[in-house]
Amino acid sequence: MTAITTTKPTISIDELTAMLTERLPIERLVQDPLRRLAYGTDASFYRLVPSLVVRPETEQELVEVIGACREGNWPMTFRAAGTSLSGQAITDGVLIQLGRGWRDARVLDDGARIDLQPGVIGARANELLAPFGRKIGPDPASIASCMIGGIAANNASGMCCGTAQNTYRTLDSLRMVLLDGTVLDTADADSVAAFRQSHAALLDGLERLSTNVRTDLELAKRIRHKYRLKNTTGYALNSLVDFRDGVDILAHLMIGSEGTLGCITRITYQSVPEPPRKAAALIFFPDLGSACRATIALRGTGVAAVELMDRAGLRSVERQPGMPEQLRELPDGATALLVDVREEDGPRLEARIEEVGQALEGITTLEPIAFTEDPVSYALYWKVRKGLFPAVGAVRDLGTTVVIEDVAFPIERLEEGVAALTEAFKRHGYDDALLFGHALEGNLHFVFPQGFERPGEKERYQALMADVAQLVAVDFGGSLKAEHGTGRNMAPFVELEWGEEAYALMWQIKALFDPGHLLNPDVMLTRNPTLHLENLKPLPEADPIVDRCIECGFCEAVCPSRELTLTPRQRIVLTRERARLAALDELSDEERERRDAFEQSALYDIDVTCAADGMCGTRCPVGINTGEMVLAMRQERHVGKQELARRIGRHFSGATKIARGGLRAASLGRGIIGDALMARASQGVHKASGKRVPQWIPAIPAAAPIRVLKSSRPSAGASSTEGPRDSVVYFPSCATRVFGADKRDDSARAVMEIVLSLLDRAGYDVIIPEMPGHLCCGMAFSSKGMDNEATHKARELNRELLVASQNGRFPVLFDTSPCSLQVEGHLDERLKVQEPVAFAHDHLLPRLEVTPLDCKVAVHVTCSSHRKGLTDSFVELARACAREVVVPDGISCCGFAGDKGLRVPELTASSLRDLSGQVAGCDFGVSNSRTCEMGMTQHSGLTYHSILELLDRASQPTAQGGVSKERAVSL
């Protein structure tokens, strides 16, 4: 076996850091003990804390980082999203994160190919290809969160990918950086030619290995057999039999190499068709055996996917919101197959569905087979499947982790293999294990909660894994890692699966690329037989809101603070660490340093920079809203300010008048000294006050008018058929009562004026509740942890809205989306609260004649609209009113979060850093929250208005519309 020498670093981490500060900006080097812990966490059940986290933003910076680590003999690990499940993205060396700066994506050849950098989220690639009816081949369950770098480095596949559409099979070209700093671009003839000269020894070595393998008929046969299955165990040895040219071999070895041979900096995929017609069926069978037989019967039918879910798996999700009722009624032992069919048109889809029915004739099902094309039901079926792994984590015992592994059996032995695997679980006492997976490929995931603290648990786990490895890899000739990558959990078993000869071949490959074992050491290949039992992640009880979290990282892509401080997952990591340290009697020096750091920086990182927007809950498979945890922290921290909150709440009308007065004074000041000087002066005051005084920004609009227009109330005796249809209660939020139109747009009007104009034009009688200037939904208080006053204001509002709506007879329209979300669960059930976009889309559009404006409009869907499922309605409403609509990518929340855009302006600046480039060329922008519009205006170069103003400008009343008498009412 080729020797690989692993040596210790020759310089200290401080010396390495000093070396790197000469090559990178200091802010790209993370040394803080808390952030190193947070940033070093991935979705696996292992934990290592990196000695340094580096965030290069260009390929040249990456070359510099690799060079410095090589010079100092420091091990390094490359990281994209960190959603990997087997510990391949953690290190106690140098963690190199490829995020910002690595998100370039280009569609080529009318969608036939797509060129991607490693920081592009997989789902984004598919969004870009969708207009061409194409997608990338890999489709892992985490595609909305994982990044291309991880997809390629793990050769991830997924539900509909199989073995034909994974990265290895759909690779067009790639660009990479090797350990010696050399950059190779296989799409560039000059780069390839230069590489052939400079790295002739490496290419000769690969070609020699290829020749040896192809002449060893038994080994070549074994390799081909192994890749008939899904297989990511060890290096891609199929590259040695599929290709003869060294460059081709090298490129395909990089796929699935988990960052142990080099770093992929760009990859071009050959895209695959995405048929427009889709249908799915949840088919229930009495037992696992019959489901396996059904899978084999479906093998030749051309179905897109067959996903198996055993009874334990279905039980873990059956009580989640929206799950089909029949899940709860299934008998023990029942097993479901989610069968997905896709075609170009309706007749072909029907033929495919009929083919499925014929294939399953004679196999007993618990219910008749019923396919659906309904998008809601279709999405629900896939939600059942994709939510299985995190759902198990949510119901595990506190203090335990969740183990997930994925194996593949030869499809013809699937039923036999499943039975043997199930028996192994029972033999070792894992009665709560569940099975699910891509049955069409013989690929099954097994999941179970696992504690390691109690005596004997490590030994029990070790015995199970040894049995499973023997059973799958040897007895059945399957693969131990079908699609999740080898990682740390299966590295000790690679030789068992492949045999001594093939394993030695893998070490030879490693030696050609990385003789010093610096690239992600012990991942993929290891000589430590107990590696899978070491560095296990602690998951102590910390907070009831987040204790269910398994740190999968699905939440991170939508967090506005993800590149400023922490993501929701990372906030949970640090909260757990604080709880763990508090329970220890003795601390190591490193733990003591971490504990002390909590006092210095945790408040800013965990609390101050959290927008508490709830977007994390929309991506979390079990609905964890980390913002709720942060709000609870704020409530505890602001106990002494509750009396001040009570006074403000009791005099809320006066407080808003003072705010409007402040805006008038600011307008006067900017008129005298100009925006630039005004902004600099405000920044100085903001910093001098310790960020307690809000910072003025040029996007702050003028004060709202003191008086608003109000149409006549309907008489108490109005008919019940006319009242609910033609009358509406309008509640103007405190934001729209304070902030008026943007002064830089002469045509803009205050939101209150616009709402009343639209309602009047659409033929509605409008009722405004009494004391509108005093009322508030409570968000101004709850967002700061002042829940007592928030509850009081919600009760006040509830009382007045009941009176105004005649106990719910008339719907209640809020003009700001966040407020409509805030009152959910706080108002009387009889009140029919209307969110502004939903009301405009569903009720105003049908009453108005809309002529799209000849303009290009940028749309910002607020986090509250996302959470209410109104994204599509929002975009549809904008498209009805404008010639062209642009929805910027990667901006789910602007980070303004009430007044955080003024108190923590760096949060909004970080969240919207990429906005201006994406909306260049737009005439203006629209949203549905006055404060969010301010943040978007500040960072886009456009002026953002309420989307209701866009509708107002584009619309005229229909014949059914009406105009009613108007009068003024004071706020």
UniProtKB/TrEMBL annotation:
Class of enzymatic activity (EC top level): oxidoreductase
Keyword Iron-sulfur appears in the UniProt entry: yes
Coiled-coil blocks: none
Signal peptide (residue range): none
Keywords, alphabetical: FAD, Flavoprotein, Iron, Iron-sulfur, Metal-binding, Oxidoreductase, Transit peptide
UniProt-listed Enzyme Commission number(s): 1.1.2.4
Keyword Signal assigned: no
Required cofactor(s): FAD
Domain FAD-binding PCMH-type: 46-274
All copies of domain 4Fe-4S ferredoxin-type, residue ranges: 538-569
Family annotation (Pfam families): CCG, FAD-oxidase_C, FAD_binding_4, Fer4_8
Similarity remark: Belongs to the FAD-binding oxidoreductase/transferase type 4 family.
Protein name: D-lactate dehydrogenase (cytochrome)
